[in-house]
Structure formats: C-alpha cells, structure tokens
Inverse folding.
C-alpha cells in the first residue's frame, strides 16, 4: 500500500517541477477530540460556532476567543471566505464537539502582507473547538426551503423569514438587527446584478481557491 502512495506523491511532485509550479499549500490537520456520536458533519455553506486560540510558530499566543474581547465564541459561514482560507479548508467534515489543531501556511493565512499583529509570511497554528453547526442561509440545501413562492429567486423578505425560523428552531430568540445584518451581507455577496433578488444561479457557491 505504501509503494503506490509514494509513487503517486513522486509523480505529483515531478509534474509540479516540470510545469514550473510548486505544489499548492495545504493545511496540516490534527484531530484532538471527536465525539462518539456525530449527527452531522460540517460542509461548505454551514454556519459554525467556534472557540479558537491562535499561536505563532514560536509558541506565542496572538489571540484567544475565550480570553479576549467579549470572551464569546464566534459564528461564521464555512467556505465563503469570511475567515482565512486555512479555516475554510481545515474545518470541513467536523462534528459539533470536535476539536482540531490546524497548522496554516502563509498562503492560506495572511500571506506576504500580514494583518494587524500577524507579520508577513507567518505560519499560524490554531486550536479550534466547533460548538455548533447549523444549516447556512446560503447553502444549496436551503434554497428551495427559502424560496417560498417557488419563483427560483430569493427576496430579502424570504431570506429574513428563513433566518428567523432557523433561530427559533434552535431555541434562540429572534434578533431582527442580526437578521437584517446577515441578510444584507448575503445580498452584498450573492446578488451579482444588484436587482434586489438572488437567483438560483447567483446562489451557487464559487470556490476558486479549491
């Protein structure tokens, strides 16, 4: 089994060298804990609630969601570049309650420019706990459920109604301000022709980095 794998790796590296390109940067993933029962796994379009700690290569911590700010976990949508590419790649197929260690190279973090306290060309290590996974308002599976009048396009009202229903279904009180902000963010990214609707075509995810 090992020989075919080594052969495949060697041929891939040879192809990369012969074409003048380096292999694509990858995230190193280590599963630190996975719950015995897993009802669903994260996928692009899902909304994740996570706690995270970030470290430089020398072991210095540069951020902790538990220790800084309001000390609350953060929500984000997986796969739509709301976070660094290393997270979008490294947090797929996770269970609620799972913990991973990600080692993210510069190309999938903050690159040659850096950001804030992150110097240029920094390799970063993250310890990430996924606390909750929800259907994302922009996932493919949600489109038909959101399209209340079956006209193959989504209005702002339909998106807000869906957000409200999802919050209530998970036991959270409605939050009109949050729903409005999420809806505006969705339309800013997905309504390409700015006609006030998101068509089924516009709704399709585009993951150029994959």
């Amino acid at each position: 089994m090992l020989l075919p794998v080594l052969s495949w790796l060697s041929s891939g590296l040879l192809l990369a060298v012969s074409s003048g390109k380096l292999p694509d940067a990858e995230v190193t993933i280590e599963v630190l804990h996975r719950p015995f029962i897993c009802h669903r796994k994260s996928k692009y379009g899902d909304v994740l609630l996570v706690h995270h700690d970030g470290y430089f290569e020398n072991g210095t911590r540069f951020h902790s969601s538990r220790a800084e700010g309001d000390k609350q976990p953060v929500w984000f949508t997986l796969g739509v570049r709301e976070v660094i590419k290393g997270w979008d790649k490294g947090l797929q197929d996770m269970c609620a309650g799972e913990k991973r260690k990600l080692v993210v190279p510069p190309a999938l973090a903050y690159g040659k420019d850096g950001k804030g306290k992150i110097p240029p060309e920094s390799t970063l290590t993250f310890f990430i706990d996924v606390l909750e996974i929800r259907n994302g308002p922009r996932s493919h599976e949600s489109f038909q459920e959101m399209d209340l009048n079956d006209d193959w396009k989504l209005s702002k009202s339909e998106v807000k109604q869906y957000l409200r229903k999802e919050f209530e279904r998970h036991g959270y009180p409605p939050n009109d301000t949050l729903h409005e902000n999420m809806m505006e963010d969705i339309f800013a990214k997905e309504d390409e022709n700015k006609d006030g609707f998101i068509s089924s075509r516009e709704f399709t995810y585009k993951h150029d980095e994959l």
About this structure: Confidence is low (pLDDT under 50) at residues 1-22, 205-210. The radius of gyration is 20 Å. Residues 2-18 form the longest helix (17 residues). Strands lie at 28-33, 47-55, 61-64, 74-77, 99-104, 124-134, 153-154, 198-199.
